[in-house]
Design goal:
There is one protein chain. Helix 6 links the parallel strand 10 and strand 11. The protein is elongated and about 60 Å long. Helix 1 packs across helix 7 and helix 5 crosses helix 6. The chain is 30% helix and 20% strand. It is α/β, with parallel strands linked by helices. The chain has two domains: 122 residues, NAD(P)-binding Rossmann-like Domain (Rossmann fold); 111 residues, Rossmann fold, CATH 3.40.50. The termini are close together. The chain has seven helices and twelve strands. A six-stranded parallel beta sheet has the order 3-2-1-4-5-12, sandwiched between helices. Strands 6-11-10-7-8-9 form a six-stranded parallel beta sheet, sandwiched between helices. Bound molecules: NADP nicotinamide-adenine-dinucleotide phosphate (NAP). NADP nicotinamide-adenine-dinucleotide phosphate (NAP) binds next to strand 2, helix 2 and helix 3.
């Protein structure tokens, strides 16, 4: 049968850490699903979640496969950040090993509009090279795990925004840290860029609304944005919105073969 122990509802595991994961959790909490959200556990004070949460890595694809079996997970939703490559690859592998239906919920990337000055870079090392030799005032909004390569370019002045403190700090002589959790508004981000006289923004093409404000603010001010290229998409069905994920689950429940048949 579908479901978790005596709970007859289908058990959905959402790999989270994103706004969409939280929104999907909320949507499923109002429907006939038993839902668990999994967080990597990187953030000290994560946003409140609408359904039960488990925290920390699974121990690779095999560990995730074991979890899917032991917790009788019926459907796996990969709603992690578009740049969280490892967990997404593990999810596809674990789903295949355990024959668990999997869906990727992936928000589409932003696309450039008139006035955007975007520089496509493959990763942080490429962004460092693209910044060049001349000292610049750089707004880094790439997440704490992507900062280390910028230590190779100590001639720049860095303004680093993150949810949790950067520990240890970036090994450069000039860095200013801004602790803040999105969403941000365009006027807030314009004020940040202006007040620090930023002349380059480095960011991921995360898509969605919560962090778009820096892109819009940079456009207004004519500041170039170095955007990390998105990782390749994983090899599984994919949707772009929470509503589509709910529809996929509804459909999949209708098609599901009862366990043990
Ligand atoms: P990653 O490089 O793809 O994953 C590294 C390892 O962290 C995985 O192998 C897994 O450990 C563990 N992990 C990642 N996400 C997990 C989850 N939701 N539940 C349980 N374990 C998880 O991922 P990342 O880039 O470090 O991102 C970590 C989390 O932060 C993700 O949930 C992601 O949605 C969120 N996030 C990432 C970014 C970003 O730019 N990368 C931005 C915002 C939020 P095991 O192999 O031991 O299972």
């Amino acid at each position: 049968m579908l479901g978790l122990g005596l709970d007859m509802r289908p058990h959905v595991l959402i790999l989270g850490g994103t706004t969409e994961a939280r929104e999907l959790g909320f949507a499923l909490s109002c429907r006939d699903f038993a839902t668990t959200i999994s967080l990597a556990g990187r953030t000290a004070t994560p946003a409140a979640q609408p359904v039960p949460v488990r925290r920390g890595g699974f121990g690779g694809a095999d560990g995730l496969a074991e979890y899917l079996c032991s917790q009788r997970v019926d459907f796996l939703i990969d709603a992690t950040h578009p740049y969280a490559e490892t967990i997404s690859a593990n999810a596809v592998q674990a789903a295949s090993q355990t024959h668990t239906p999997i869906l990727s919920l992936r928000r589409p990337p932003w696309t450039a509009v008139d006035g955007d000055v975007w520089i496509d870079v493959s990763d942080a090392q490429a962004a460092v090279r693209a910044l060049g030799e001349r000292s610049r005032r750089v707004f880094l909004a790439v997440g704490r795990q992507e900062l280390t390569p910028f230590a190779a370019a100590p001639q720049h002045y860095y303004f680093i925004r993150s949810v949790d403190p950067v520990e240890p700090p970036l090994d450069v002589p000039q860095a200013h840290y801004i602790l803040a959790r999105g969403p941000f508004t365009e006027s807030e981000d314009r004020a940040v860029l202006e007040s620090f006289s930023i002349d380059a923004v480095v960011a991921k093409n995360s898509g969605g609304e919560a962090t778009y404000s820096k892109i819009a603010a940079a456009r207004q001010l004519g500041i170039p944005v170095l955007l990390f290229r998105r990782p390749a998409v994983t090899d599984c069905p994919s949707v772009a919105t929470v509503a589509e994920a709910v529809a996929w689950l509804d459909h999949a429940v209708g098609l599901a073969v009862p366990r043990g048949v």
